[in-house]
Design a protein that fits this description.
- The protein has about 220 residues and is of the alpha+beta class.
- It is built from 5 helices and 12 strands.
- It has helices spanning about 10-15, 35-45, 65-85, 145-160, 205-210; strands at about 50-55, 55-60, 90, 95-100, 105, 110-115, 135-140, 160-165, 170-175, 180-185, 190, 200-205.
- The chain has a 6-stranded mixed beta sheet, with helices on both faces. It has a two-stranded antiparallel sheet with strand order 1-2.
- A hairpin with a 2-residue loop joins β1 (about 50-55) and β2 (about 55-60).
- The chain starts with 10 loop residues before the first helix and ends in an 11-residue tail after the last helix.
């Protein structure tokens, strides 16, 4: 299991445990280590912020407009492949999943094959306990390397098969097959998917080209 910082940890220790993130992203109510899914649901219901639940601590997500656009573009690509073949379900950043007790994550994009869904049906729970085949995180400026390393460990420990980390500023994608085994793809490369997504190739030039779009001067 991922180390639990616990209620008695100092703020400094807690921030290190969460991945050296900014203190401004950590909710102080309820105290760290004591938050439940009910607390998490209440915090997100306010719509003022979007939080994840990490070992019983409410942590505000680092978010960005261009990051959201890239996530939406990738969702379109995945759905265009998944839906005609009825392979499973593609979700966006509000598709929160419970990885472990007191730990809820919301990857920017995820794909779960029917075999990963209990009974081969859509979950009815607001926060299902499941491990998708693929999770994708689009890095925002507020994300730290240690925070994302922790997320990868959690995803793979929960049973996720593939994790992609998209860096919009470097225009690269780190494709992880385990928490420590990865390959970096650049804008000139393609991602060749595996598992239930076998047969899908994604042009990173096309994906990152979304960042260069502008109004047609003749329009």
């Amino acid at each position: 299991m991922i180390h639990n910082a616990g209620v008695s940890a100092s703020l400094e220790d807690l921030l290190v445990d969460l991945g050296a993130i900014s203190a401004s992203r950590v909710r102080s109510t309820p105290p760290s280590g004591t938050a439940t899914i009910s607390h998490w649901q209440a915090a997100n219901r306010s719509r003022r912020v979007s939080c994840e639940l990490v070992d019983g601590t409410l942590v505000e997500r680092a978010m960005g407009w261009q990051e959201s656009m890239l996530a939406a573009a990738l969702i379109e690509i995945l759905r265009a492949f998944v839906m005609p073949r009825n392979l499973g379900v593609v979700t966006g950043p509000d598709g929160f999943i419970e990885l472990f007790p007191m730990t809820v994550r919301g990857p920017d994009v995820s794909f779960a094959s029917w075999a990963r869904l209990p009974g081969g049906r859509l979950p009815v729970e607001a926060v299902p306990r499941l491990a998708p085949d693929l999770v994708v995180e689009v890095l925002s400026e507020g994300n730290t390397p240690a925070e994302m390393a922790r997320k990868r460990r959690e995803y793979f420990q929960a049973g996720v098969s593939d994790v992609w980390m998209i860096d919009p500023r470097q225009r690269s994608v780190a494709v992880y097959a385990s928490s420590v085994s990865y390959e970096v793809k650049t804008e000139d490369d393609t991602i060749v998917c595996r598992g239930e997504l076998f047969g899908l190739t994604i042009s990173l030039a096309a994906l990152f080209g979304e960042l260069d779009r502008e109004r047609d001067s003749n329009g």
